């Protein structure tokens, strides 16, 4: 083996050491979002979104399009603002007094933070599934029927029955629970509970479904079922999913957006993000060099 | 010496400390139970005689001439008729040897003052009795009662004994002829207060307490729950709200008599509400109970997992819907528990009610929340204050009734909590 | 363009595994390079012993390939590498195939040489082939260096240089064919020489492949079967 090769071998290792000493690898200057944050057929477009918790800025100048009928995954280390951003999309942040949102968020071209936009109506159009399965302490049937009932989506019991059944079928849960629709929803397994929550969400027939780490509390098989479900749901819904599992993001999404310290660092096709991210921070996060 | 040895050495000490702590804990519990048992036994043994009534069986002649009424007389007339006469006649009949005035008076006091009312009530109920002879068990006087129950010792010399020889002799004669009987004292639960121990009942106080608590519950529960919901779910976070919160907490620590003063000054003097009435008592007690229920309700609402609210909001429920459909039902066990604890507190409260005149001696049983009445703990206080020997057992009996109601309310609290508690 | 660098992973074990793979790949490359050097020495010195010695080493590279393949499979299974790590694994798995082929080609040359030496064949074309071989060797060492340093710029240059080797080979092969036509008696030895030259040209191609993997690894672009000039221009623009 010649010397050049030997030298070459040692070189990266040396660099690694020098980098470790300075510890500045995370303090990379922020540049504009790289990749393709915008897309042709956006369901939701956000422009220059800032979110503040009191004086603390949690989201800095995020501009991102969410394409119709596709799954976009938001990834990033804890506290990077991805969940906060997700919650601005259906104004769940409204419930927090100290939270302020600046910038534009357009759903089908209409600003959802306009005064005349009703957050209740918005949430009927943009549903949400949470990290921890949170069925109501009611029966399976009532859980799914709750949304349609409060919005008055059905005219009679038969219609409601159909809607509940249909939603449970779509959520892939019907076969498992059809004999015990009036058993408590809290008696189901974790994965079933989460699918019940998804069924409950789709019963309202929203246009967009926001999912905040929907499978993080589930075992691999339940997770696989949820992922399969997400894949099927994208035919009818636009899905935004926040996940800590990069493999999950890679498996379920068409586009991936990487958040870091409240900034949107990179957006791109999932294939590209996971094989060849453009931004150094994305690269580091995806390969597990921090986070 | 390696680590294992060091740990082994310290283990002994640690286990000893643990045993010591356990023993001390056990001892304190045993002490507490002993004291409680002592208290309960004392009350129970003292109260027991109050539930037994001594009766004197007499055959009375209800002839129309003596009473001055006949079977066709209306209630008014019956009410004003003199029923003392037949009873006294019956007593004289039984003991014909008594002739002196003083002795006669002694003899007449074998039956209670209430005996004539007992007879009157029977006749009112059934006027056909007029003109017949009836054998009736009359309420005995408290002294007779005391002799029968043994609270007055028959063997004491006459000078130290409340019941003199003459009377004791009559009592023993009656006893020998089987004319003195005992039975469960229903009268205690059916009558109002009285100066005569054997006639005094607790019904007035029970109803007074009940009316007061109803007013308290009707006022404090909705107000407190609404306040708790508003403060927890809707109130903006600012200094004003913080100020209110602090003051609610402080209010819970205000001495209850202060609420009584407030009730006296505001409701009675300013608004001219009736004195001694359950309505005023209820208002005052609800002021006192409000902070307790608010604090309990707030912590119950706070304990509802936020995921439940989020789930409802995420489906497009309004804030109001999320609170009333999900948060409130989930918090209900806690709210109810808090409410019943507050109610139990109100049930046992005396001081504020003293200030608004509920301490008065009231014979009539209250018919509504505006009638003058007293409440259980004040009844206890009043009887404990009375000099007659017979009131001692009444006091203990009233305490038992009060304790029974408290236990019943706690049992309801536990039942409700179990019933509404749901897992999530 | 900046040199690509590997920073530490959160998992130090993973880090070690990735570094091991790179090191083993470079060792394997070094082995192939050594074999090529030996076979060229055997050509220039017309030495039968060197050719024999080379043939005795043949199995080393094969074993290395098997080992590296296993290591890569294990990392894929256990670490689910992504982004640059994923590209590294892919590049390594592809590179080892090419390096193994390089080893095979050197062995093939050694066998051809032994036949030629056995016939006591001498020709000035040994020198010519050695020249071609030196160029190929330069390219191979260069690409292995670029691999060690993860130097995409160098890799592009080297990939372009493959055209020179191809041209050189075409010329040499033309001459050899002419020789065969002129001297039909010696078709067999010249054919042997021609096959040697062809092997060298193949080694050059493999070196070029390695360069392409380096480019893929460093900039994440698959440049195979595309015009290298275009790639270069687009990279220079960046």
TrEMBL record, chain B:
Give the transmembrane region(s): 20-40, 205-231, 251-272, 279-301, 323-344, 397-416
Checking Pfam families in the record gives: BPD_transp_1, DUF3333
Q: Does the keyword Cell membrane apply?
A: yes
Record carries keyword Transmembrane: yes
The UniProt keyword set, sorted, is: Cell membrane, Membrane, Transmembrane, Transmembrane helix, Transport
Report the membrane topology from the UniProt record: Multi-pass membrane protein
Q: What is its main location?
A: membrane
Domain ABC transmembrane type-1 residues, every copy: 206-413
InterPro entries referenced in this protein's UniProt entry, alphabetically: DUF3333 (IPR024573), MetI-like (IPR000515), MetI-like_sf (IPR035906), Phosphate_PstA (IPR005672)
Q: Which domain of life is it from?
A: Bacteria
- Tell me where in or outside the cell this protein is found: Cell inner membrane; Cell membrane
Q: Could you say which protein family the record assigns here?
A: Belongs to the binding-protein-dependent transport system permease family. CysTW subfamily.
- For this entry, the protein name equals Phosphate transport system permease protein PstA
Q: From which source organism is this entry?
A: Marinicella sediminis
- Name the lineage: Bacteria, Pseudomonadati, Pseudomonadota, Gammaproteobacteria, Lysobacterales
Automatic annotation (TrEMBL), chain C:
Main localisation:
cytoplasm
- Keyword annotations of the record: Cytoplasm, Phosphate transport, Transport
Indicate whether Protein transport appears among the record's keywords.
no
Name the coiled-coil region(s).
none
One matching Pfam family: PhoU
The entry's localization annotation reads: Cytoplasm
InterPro entries membership: PhoU, PhoU-like_sf, PhoU_dom
Q: Where is the PhoU domain?
A: 25-112, 129-214
* SUPFAM superfamilies, alphabetized: PhoU-like
Q: What is its biological role?
A: Plays a role in the regulation of phosphate uptake.
Q: Which family does it belong to?
A: Belongs to the PhoU family.
The protein's assembly and partners: Homodimer.
Name this polypeptide is given: Phosphate-specific transport system accessory protein PhoU
Organism, as annotated:
Marinicella sediminis
The gene that this protein is the product of is phoU
């Amino acid at each position: 083996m010649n010397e050049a090769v030997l030298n070459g071998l040692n070189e990266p290792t040396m660099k690694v050491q020098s980098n470790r000493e300075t510890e500045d690898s995370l303090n990379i200057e922020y540049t504009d979002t790289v990749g393709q944050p915008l897309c042709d057929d956006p369901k939701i477009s956000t422009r220059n979104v800032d979110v503040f918790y009191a004086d603390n800025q949690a989201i800095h100048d995020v501009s991102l399009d969410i394409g119709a009928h596709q799954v976009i995954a938001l990834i990033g280390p804890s506290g990077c603002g991805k969940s906060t951003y997700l919650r601005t999309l259906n104004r769940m942040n409204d419930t927090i007094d100290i939270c302020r949102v600046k910038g534009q968020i357009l759903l089908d071209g209409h600003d959802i933070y306009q005064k005349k936009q009703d957050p209740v109506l918005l949430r009927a159009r943009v549903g949400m599934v949470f990290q921890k399965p949170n069925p109501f302490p009611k029966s399976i049937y009532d859980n799914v029927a709750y949304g349609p009932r409060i919005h008055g989506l059905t005219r009679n019991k038969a219609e409601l029955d159909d809607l509940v059944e249909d939603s449970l079928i779509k959520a892939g849960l019907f076969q498992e629970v059809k004999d015990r629709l009036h058993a408590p929803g809290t008696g189901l397994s974790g994965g079933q509970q989460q699918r019940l929550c998804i069924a409950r969400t789709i019963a309202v027939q929203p246009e967009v479904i926001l999912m905040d780490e929907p499978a993080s509390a589930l075992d691999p098989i339940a997770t696989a079922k949820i992922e399969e479900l997400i894949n099927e749901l994208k035919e009818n819904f636009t899905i935004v999913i926040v996940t800590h599992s990069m493999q999950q993001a890679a498996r379920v999404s068409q586009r991936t957006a990487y958040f870091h310290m409240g900034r949107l660092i990179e957006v791109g096709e999932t294939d590209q993000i996971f094989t060849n991210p453009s931004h150094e921070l994305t690269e580091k996060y995806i390969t597990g060099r921090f986070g | 010496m390696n680590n294992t040895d060091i740990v082994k050495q310290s283990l002994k000490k640690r286990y000893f400390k643990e045993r010591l702590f356990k023993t001390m804990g056990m001892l304190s519990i045993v002490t507490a139970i002993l004291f409680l048992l002592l208290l309960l036994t004392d009350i129970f043994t003292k109260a027991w005689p109050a539930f037994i009534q001594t009766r004197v069986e007499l055959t009375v002649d209800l002839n129309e001439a003596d009473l001055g009424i006949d079977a066709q007389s209306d209630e008014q007339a019956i009410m004003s008729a003199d029923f003392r006469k037949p009873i006294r006649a019956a007593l004289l009949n039984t003991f014909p040897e008594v002739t002196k005035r003083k002795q006669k008076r002694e003899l007449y006091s074998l039956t209670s003052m209430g005996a004539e009312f007992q007879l009157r009530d029977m006749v009112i109920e059934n006027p056909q009795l007029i003109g017949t002879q009836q054998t009736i068990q009359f309420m005995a006087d408290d002294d007779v009662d005391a002799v029968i129950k043994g609270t007055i010792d028959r063997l004491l010399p006459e000078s130290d004994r409340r019941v003199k020889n003459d009377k004791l002799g009559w009592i023993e004669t009656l006893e020998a002829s089987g004319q003195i009987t005992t039975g469960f004292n229903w009268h205690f639960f059916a009558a109002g207060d009285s100066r005569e121990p054997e006639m005094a009942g607790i019904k007035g106080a029970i109803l007074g307490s009940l009316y007061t608590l109803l007013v308290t519950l009707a006022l404090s529960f909705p107000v407190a729950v609404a306040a708790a919901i508003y403060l927890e779910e809707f109130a903006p976070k600012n200094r004003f709200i913080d100020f209110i919160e602090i003051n609610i907490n402080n209010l819970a620590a205000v001495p209850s008599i202060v609420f009584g003063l407030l009730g006296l000054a505001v409701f009675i003097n300013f608004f001219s509400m009736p004195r001694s009435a359950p309505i005023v008592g209820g208002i005052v007690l609800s002021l006192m109970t409000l902070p307790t229920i608010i604090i309990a309700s707030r912590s119950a609402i706070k304990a509802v997992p936020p995921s439940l609210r989020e789930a409802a909001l995420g489906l497009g429920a309004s804030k109001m819907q999320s609170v009333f459909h999900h948060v409130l039902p989930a918090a209900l066990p806690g709210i109810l528990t808090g409410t019943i604890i507050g109610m139990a507190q109100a049930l046992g409260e005396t001081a504020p009610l003293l200030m608004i005149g509920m301490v008065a001696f009231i014979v009539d049983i209250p018919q509504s929340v505006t009638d003058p009445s007293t409440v259980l703990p004040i009844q206890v206080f009043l009887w404990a204050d009375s000099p007659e020997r017979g009131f001692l057992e009444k006091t203990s009996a009233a305490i038992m009734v009060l304790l029974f109601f408290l236990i019943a309310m706690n049992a309801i609290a536990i039942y409700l909590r179990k019933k509404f508690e749901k897992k999530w | 363009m900046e040199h690509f660098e590997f920073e530490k992973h959160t998992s130090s074990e993973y880090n070690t595994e990735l570094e091991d793979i790179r090191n083993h790949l470079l060792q394997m490359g070094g082995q192939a390079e050594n074999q090529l050097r030996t076979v060229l020495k055997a050509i220039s010195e017309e030495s039968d012993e060197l050719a024999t010695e080379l043939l005795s080493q043949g199995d080393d590279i094969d074993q290395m390939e098997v080992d590296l393949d296993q290591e890569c499979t294990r990392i894929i299974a256990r670490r689910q590498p992504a982004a640059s790590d994923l590209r590294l694994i892919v590049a390594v798995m592809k590179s080892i195939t090419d390096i193994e082929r390089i080893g095979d080609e050197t062995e093939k040359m050694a066998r051809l040489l032994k036949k030629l030496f056995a016939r006591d064949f001498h020709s000035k074309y040994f020198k010519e082939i050695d020249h071609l071989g030196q160029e190929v060797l330069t390219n191979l060492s260069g690409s292995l260096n670029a691999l060690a340093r993860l130097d995409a710029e160098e890799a592009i240059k080297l990939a372009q240089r493959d055209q020179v080797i191809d041209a050189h080979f075409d010329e040499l092969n033309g001459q050899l064919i002419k020789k065969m036509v002129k001297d039909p008696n010696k078709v067999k030895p010249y054919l042997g020489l021609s096959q040697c030259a062809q092997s060298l040209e193949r080694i050059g191609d493999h070196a070029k492949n390695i360069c392409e993997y380096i480019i893929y690894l460093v900039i994440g672009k698959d440049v195979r079967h595309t015009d290298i000039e275009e790639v270069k221009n687009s990279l220079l623009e960046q």
